[in-house]
Write a structure and sequence with these properties.
With 107 residues, the protein is an alpha+beta fold. It has one domain. 19% of the residues lie in helices and 39% in strands. It is built from 1 helix and 8 strands; from the N terminus they run ββββββββα. Strands 1, 2, 3, 4, 5, 6, 7 and 8 form an 8-stranded mixed sheet that branches. It is globular. The protein starts with a strand and ends with a helix. The N terminus is likely disordered.
């Protein structure tokens, strides 16, 4: 898979500007929708699921998940998934990153 043009930026919530840059991933499976971004030691993925057709199957919507880049652990679904829009999924990732970053800082 390779990244496509047309990235969508997400602010970090700490006044630091662009913490994550979501980029659509080009897949060999036609019509599969996947975006990814990394920031502060965490990786985020948003995928579109539908009940039928190509791609991921499940309740319709944008499913967001995250994982640590430094720990050997599986992905964790972002609370509220699936979301109705990509923008809602991005905002949930931004909020999750803010929570994770605060937790690392000991706040």
């Amino acid at each position: 898979m390779r990244a496509a043009q047309g990235a969508v930026g997400v602010e970090d919530g700490h006044g630091g500007g662009m913490a994550m840059q979501f980029t659509r991933v080009v897949s060999p499976v036609e019509d599969m929708e996947i975006w990814n971004a990394s920031s502060d030691g965490f990786s985020f993925v948003i995928s579109y699921e539908s009940r039928g057709g190509p791609g991921f199957h499940g309740p319709p919507g944008y499913v967001a998940s995250w994982r640590s880049l430094s720990l050997n652990m599986g992905a964790i679904r972002v609370s509220g998934s699936p979301f109705k829009t990509l923008a809602e999924a991005e905002e949930a990732c931004k909020a999750t990153l803010g929570y994770l970053a605060r937790d690392l800082d000991g706040e």
